[in-house]
Design brief:
With about 80 residues, the protein is mainly alpha-helical. About 85% of the residues lie in helices and about 0% in strands. The chain starts with 7 loop residues before the first helix and ends with a helix.
Amino acid sequence: MGKRRVSVKTRATLGGLAIAVAALYALTVSYDIPLSELASFLIGSLAVVIGTMLLAVLVVAVIKLTARLIRKIGERKADD
């Protein structure tokens, strides 16, 4: 069996995105949703996803910095 050009995770992600786009297209056609309303929905959804990702990065940074600070304080007490 030869090497795959695209990884399984990448193919799964692209497949999921294609299904999502097809579902949104089907909804807009069947319910006559205006393009401006769909665009505002997508922008809002994207803002929520980006906000969640930024919050996750911030939480991880705070946890790592706190752990580093606690470790340094512990090292200083051990030296005394």
